[in-house]
Design a protein that fits this description.
Elements (H helix, E strand, L loop, with lengths): L1 H27 L16 H5 L1
């Protein structure tokens, strides 16, 4: 019985590991986009539309 339990644990660890690696790759790939309004402080876009 111990062997079956170890095989299940190994499969679970393998699945968690691959998911963790995929998540790390996905999160590292996110690029931050610079705001076009960075230099213009205090502008409210809704007021400009009126």
């Amino acid at each position: 019985m111990g062997v079956t339990r170890l095989k299940r644990k190994e499969a679970k660890n393998r699945a968690r590991s691959s998911k963790r690696v995929d998540d790390i790759k996905r999160l590292r790939g996110v690029k931050n986009i610079v705001s076009p309004y960075k230099g213009e402080s205090g502008i409210i876009l809704e007021d400009q539309a009126n």
